[in-house]
Amino acid sequence: MKSVQNLIERCLNQYMTQAEVIATLQVQADVDPALTCLVWSKLEEANPDFFLSYDVRLKLKDQVVAFNYLVEQQTRHHGSVIRSGRKRRRRRRDELGC
């Protein structure tokens, strides 16, 4: 159980959700999901304040990821608007013979 706890703690350092931890340990370390859930529950019982703040950090991480996605989409959209504006100006200049 101590080795599973150590693996879970490594995953927590990477801000993984419980589902991600379970899947990661099952695939990478061949740990039974039931055992991971048991150890996770024991850790939550022993460290309730940590897990409350950890949940807040996970939510904040999700918000940062969503914000960065929206910024990227806005940047792409803004770039395409600028490019299309340049093309229109070039066509007008060509039509006017400038």
Give structural notes.
The protein has 98 residues and is mostly helical. Helix content is 89%, strand content 0%. Helix 1 packs across helix 2 (18-29) and helix 2 crosses helix 3. It is rod-shaped and about 80 Å long. The model has no long low-confidence stretch (mean pLDDT 91).
Largest sheet: none
| Extended strand count | 0
Please report which band the strand proportion falls in: under 5%, 5-15%, 15-25%, 25-35%, 35-45% or over 45%: under 5%
- Helical amount among residues, as a percent range? over 70%
Which outline best applies? rod-shaped
Distance between the termini: 77 Å
Mean pLDDT: 91
The helix/strand class is mainly alpha
User: Can you count the helices?
Assistant: 4
Please trace the helix and strand order, writing H or E for each element.
HHHH
Over all CA atoms, what is the radius of gyration? 25 Å
Unreliable stretches covering 5 or more consecutive residues? none
Outline:
The protein has 98 residues and is mostly helical. It has 4 helices and no strands. Helix 1 (2-13) crosses helix 2 (18-29) and helix 2 (18-29) packs across helix 3 (33-46).
Write the layout of secondary structure elements.
Blueprint: H1 2-13, H2 18-29, H3 33-46, H4 48-96
What labels describe this entry?
rod-shaped, 98 residues, mainly alpha, 89% helix
